[in-house]
Fold these 2 entries.
Entry 1:
Amino acid sequence: SQKIEQNSEALNIQEGKTATLTCNYTNYSPAYLQWYRQDPGRGPVFLLLIRENEKEKRKERLKVTFDTTLKQSLFHITASQPADSATYLCALGGNYGQNFVFGPGTRLSVLP
Amino acid sequence: EAGVAQSPRYKIIEKRQSVAFWCNPISGHATLYWYQQILGQGPKLLIQFQNNGVVDDSQLPKDRFSAERLKGVDSTLKIQPAKLEDSAVYLCASSFSRDRRGSRSGNTIYFGEGSWLTVV
């Protein structure tokens, strides 16, 4: 069955450092992968989408890589700030509008 | 642009009671989703509508959960009777869908704030 793992349940880093979150998957061939941010008591908010034929995507301080051979995506936040503290979810999509699956999330805490 | 609206925000019920959640998606979004998110886990899709037709309800516990989308806009998710393990956040989401046959480019999904259910 499809399985998505995100590196650890929680990650603590120091302000100003680069946070790296990992999303690994098995038994799935996603056409695209998305990253969402979720704050406590709120719904997830879309951050970035990367397609299977793309290696890397950037948006401001965010960078996502997608390696379909390793079946892994890395999500980087450079120059991290306490305001970046949240849970980050990866989600995989197969065919259009179908089989969209979320990972369990990683709770990131950026310490001042 | 108004976001996805959900109500109620919080609900506490006893087991075996019933509850209903309402969702109003972003205007013009043809696809509507209901997700269940248990504390510490990622959202799990319960049901997906395309306009007022069901696309995927494979993970919906149909013996107790039901959902409808009237006139392809608002949607209601009902649980009857509720069990303790139904305690979770119920997230409604929507996305704009176009007829792109064979497309694998993906849509952004916009979530509401969720309806928190506690079954005691």
Note: DSSP finds no helices and eleven strands in chain B.
Entry 2:
Amino acid sequence: DAKTTQPTSMDCAEGRAANLPCNHSTISGNEYVYWYRQIHSQGPQYIIHGLKNNETNEMASLIITEDRKSSTLILPHATLRDTAVYYCIVRGDNYGQNFVFGPGTRLSVLP
Amino acid sequence: EAQVTQNPRYLITVTGKKLTVTCSQNMNHEYMSWYRQDPGLGLRQIYYSMNVEVTDKGDVPEGYKVSRKEKRNFPLILESPSPNQTSLYFCASSPPPGTRRDNEQFFGPGTRLTVL
């Protein structure tokens, strides 16, 4: 069973911030929150991950609530190329542990 | 260029005709995995391998075989394909434990298989 809940779809205007929410109320202490995206049937691409602190990299920011039951992926200035399915995944830190991909959120960036 | 490659990218075949989908990575990754993706079902893991000669079943292994004779290659074998194996297949790999990004998976471009 999926450990995360995401909206099925979202729209965002080009140039604006895209905020993608994810609920993971049953997350346990050693589990990380990962975000991947998949652009039109290409292989999924890693975006970012975090444990409890907020994280930022060149692609996005990840905001995790203090109770760790939810998180938000932020694409600060969405472009048309960010149109994709975004997957929020909760996973332990054991090497080789499977990533369980749910249905994700289909983000459409509109011109 | 560091990458995961799959061949073929597209394949149409008939029921019962054995086929192999190859996967190769040039990043010295130890962990490799195969997924299938079907509409409404997300990505589901078929088999994975923690290292050479070490393989294990994922969530949907029925009808598939794998081998890991060398670190860079992880072929997926369908001995007798059936129409319900029509799907989009992805291979993925992860860096060795203890290295930077060892908990990420790097995915190949996918193989679209149709079994008639």
Note: Chain B has a mean pLDDT of 94.
